Amino acid sequence: MSSSSSSTVTSAPGKVLLAGGYLVLDNAYPGVVVSTSSRFYTVVRPLLADSPDAPIQIRVRSPQFQDASWLYFVDFDGPHAVRVEHVADNGSSAATKNKFVHLALQRTLALAAELKSVGTLQNSLSYGLDITIVGDNDFYSQRAQLAAQNLPRTLDSLAKLPPFAHTGVRLPDVHKTGLGSSAALITSLVSALLLHLGAIPRDAFSSADGATASDGRKLAHNLAQYVHCLAQGKVGSGFDVSAAVFGSQLYTRFDPAVLEPLMKDDISDVPLHPVLAPSNPKWDYRVEPFKLPPQTRLMLADVDAGSDTPSLVGKVLKWRQAHAAEAKALWDRIDGLNRALSRTLLELSAKAARNPEAYRKAVKYISTIQSVQVRRARAQWLANPNIADNEHHIALKQVIESFIDAHNLSQDIRANMRTMGERADVPIEPPEQTALLDACISVAGVIGGGVPG
């Protein structure tokens, strides 16, 4: 719902970059992005202050953390400017500011004022806002929680934890799992505010994919990209925000120059909507359909703490600049493999739709075959005694061959990414992870693996 007198609830998924790590920074190369079942949720409701004549207040809470409550006052400087100030709230939030939330509030209210007028926004905020933000457990490492309950590190143990479990720590101390928590948080928050304040229509999110998305959904995407970049202090590739808005996709980044007019700290005199409007042709990102095949799922390891992505990216880009021809040849080769993997996985979905029974039998059979050596998958998976050279079994064989192609492509991507890591002196897939991945891929029913971007 988008009425300012009722509650508004939104959610946004996390992301996994299945293929296209590092390459996705360049708009010549798309990334294969999968949105996760784990999501961030934002609930916006009236704060119900004592009097609508009191200072406009916005309270934001994140109940999964210690001392995670922030209070903001909203003021209007003249007919156009909106100011959002963080204030200490009985000491609970004085020590820990939340830059992501603060910027999301500032910029979203400023955009809403441009779209709806300052007077309309003031009226919508007259009783303040009470905002609660939570994320599914998968966004944070649960090792400490499992250890505290003497539970083994298994999926069954994770299922025993309560939803939105308390992390036991303050926000700066949490161990993230790399699912794009900041992008999902910002996307859910700015979308909830835009809907709640009536800045975009209530049905703005009725169409999920980027190709047929409404202008309201695209505006939420552009705003979330902007806020996320501003909070991080740089314009990244944007695939994480795009996944949070549009779901799984083949993603090609936007030109960073589109946000250049808005990336200064003080832009109070710069209108947001002309830059963020979907009609602005400088928003040249591309979102193409993608989904995982039926009866497959993506499983991720809880590594407790992610790598220093900016440092790794910096080293890779430095190597690319110093060895342009070599890097281009390698990136072009990896890009060809990435695109082929995307096509193969989409073809599996098409084959499942054309012949569900053959697809079901193929999946059931492959899930029982253990690949003792990862490069022997073709021989092992095609050794099905039920596959005969007749028309009845052709569809079954074709499905198995597509899974073999997906397996081989993922292995080739890994090999070429390791090559890039060696040449750039970056641990893209260190030996410890190579050993772990090889062991996982040898398990029955595993199609492929890798270190996600």
Q: Fraction of residues in helices? A: 40-55%
Look up the CATH topology of the largest domain.
Ribosomal Protein S5, domain 2
Query: Which CATH class of the largest domain is shown?
Result: Alpha Beta
Gap between N and C termini, in Å? 35 Å
- The helix count comes to 14
Count of domains? 2
Whole-number radius of gyration?
24 Å
What fraction of residues sit in β-strands?
Answer: 5-15%
Mean pLDDT across the residues is 91
Number of strands: 8
Question: Based on CA inertia axes, which overall geometry fits?
Answer: globular
Q: Please name the CATH architecture of the largest domain.
A: 2-Layer Sandwich
Largest sheet: 8 strands, mixed
SSE pattern: EEEEEHHEHHHHHEHEHHHHHH
Low-confidence stretches: none
Going by helix content, strand content and strand pairing, the class is alpha+beta
Task: Describe the protein's architecture and organization.
- This protein has 14 helices and eight strands.
- It has 453 residues and is an alpha+beta fold.
- It folds into two domains: 8-289, 2-Layer Sandwich (Ribosomal Protein S5, domain 2); 309-441, no CATH class.
- Strands 1, 2, 3, 4, 5, 6, 7 and 8 form an eight-stranded mixed beta sheet that branches.
- The longest helix is centred in the last third of the chain and has 34 residues, at 391-424.
- It is globular, with a radius of gyration of 24 Å.
- The chain starts with 7 loop residues before the first strand and ends in a 12-residue tail after the last helix.
- 41% of the residues are buried.
